[in-house]
Design a protein that fits this description.
Length: about 300
């Protein structure tokens, strides 16, 4: 796998180098396709580790998911190329603590149908719309645990009106211009292709920096008081910036930052101590009678 990946990177570097010189528009189209492509994950790799409580499957608008337990509802939101049960380590502890847990695969991810971008493609806005669609079908969100790109997707859903009482962001993505920088360094496309891609992106979605967390947070605060937030991030995360989570903590009043070392981008989701801290954080202000609390929220 490592050799194949290295070969692919060399191929793209050669291709982008040529297109930068002779056909930057074609290079822009290729970069646009790569940017919005969802990496495929084999079904075997998506199987959860360990036993889970009894699940109630559901499907809404082509999105497939499961719910577990009874009580105030906590949604598990995966990131780009992820799947709902990637956060499975949180399910049993949350159910044992009196919560109902809803997990799902967003469009073009896991077992769900393709979204509006077509098979194998998606956008950050589509991830946000997937969360709003599932909440509309499954009931009000007491809490959310969101991983990687799932965190800004959750923030965008809140900007657009979704109400959530408590949040846990794990290895959150915060600045997509940094991701573009990393992709440029890896694939070797030049300034003409980059500029063309940004023009195309902005024409469709608006400026890329408008999706950065430091831009979305004030937009949420304009419509509601920011809910309590716990941020979990590993210092050695190679995919999302730890400093980005430090910055979000500084801009989000009352937010807490829980730091780990050596767990990277995905093992941080399975660390028992960090899972315990996330569950305890969500339980801090939950209704004392969890089951009746959910019923009151559903009626309200």
């Amino acid at each position: 796998m490592a050799a194949k990946k290295s070969t692919n990177v060399r191929f793209f570097r050669l291709g982008f180098g040529l297109l930068e010189r002779v056909a930057p528009a074609a290079g822009t189209s290729l970069l646009n396709r790569l940017w919005f492509r969802v990496p495929a994950v084999p079904e075997k790799a998506r199987r959860p580790r360990g036993e889970l409580p009894i699940a109630t499957p559901f499907e809404v608008a082509g999105i497939r998911g499961q719910s577990y337990g009874e009580g105030p509802t906590v949604y598990l939101v995966h990131g780009w190329g992820g799947w709902g049960l990637q956060l499975a380590a949180h399910i049993k502890p949350l159910v044992d603590s009196g919560f109902r847990v809803v997990t799902y695969d967003a469009w073009s991810h896991g077992d769900s149908a393709p979204g509006g971008e077509g098979k194998g493609f998606s956008t950050l806005l589509e991830l946000a719309d997937a969360l709003k669609t599932v909440v509309a079908a499954q009931g009000p969100a007491y809490g959310v645990v969101a991983h990687s790109l799932g965190a800004p997707a959750t923030a965008l859903a809140m900007r657009d009106g979704l109400d959530i009482d408590r949040l846990v962001f794990v290895a959150t993505a915060t600045d997509f211009t940094e991701w573009l920088d990393q992709l440029q360094a890896a694939l070797g496309f030049g300034p003409r292709i980059r500029a063309g891609f940004l023009r195309r992106f902005e024409a469709r979605f608006g400026p890329m920096d408008s999706f950065a967390m430091d831009a979305v947070i004030p937009a949420i605060a304009e419509r509601r008081e920011l809910p309590p937030l716990l941020i979990v991030h590993d210092r050695s995360d190679p995919e999302t910036s730890y400093q980005g989570s430090v910055d979000v903590t500084a801009h989000w009043p009352g937010a807490r930052l829980e730091t780990s070392d050596g767990l990277g981008h995905r093992r941080v989701l399975r660390d028992p101590d960090l899972v315990k801290k996330a569950v305890e954080f969500l339980a801090e202000r939950a209704p004392t009678d969890r089951r009746s609390g959910r019923q009151e929220r559903m009626r309200g």
